[in-house]
Amino acid sequence: MLSAKLHGGRVTCCNLDYEGSCGIGPDLLKASGILPFEKISVLNVSTGGRLETYVIPGKKDGELSLNGAAARHAAVGDKIIILAFAVLTPAQIRSHRARIVILGHENKIVSCRTEKVLG
Question: Which positions are annotated as active-site residues?
């Protein structure tokens, strides 16, 4: 089940010579509820590519960096979507709310909302 989504972000840095991961700025981690070392999917809107990696805390607000092998899948400025998922029991699904964070210029937070899975 989708637990969090960072939508409309842009890659701020690609560093091939770095231990593989996706750096996400502290403001974006807090807003989305995504945790360090959590497995994520990164969807590159600019190229259509997709990859899975894990999160490391970024140093700066608005940071969305791809490192190691993941850096081969994007260029600075590419538009991306980051998705995090959770495994839930049927009881948990009934009350689950996915957190959606919309990003704008320089990966500033434009809006945050939650979406109930079951109406």
Answer: 21, 54
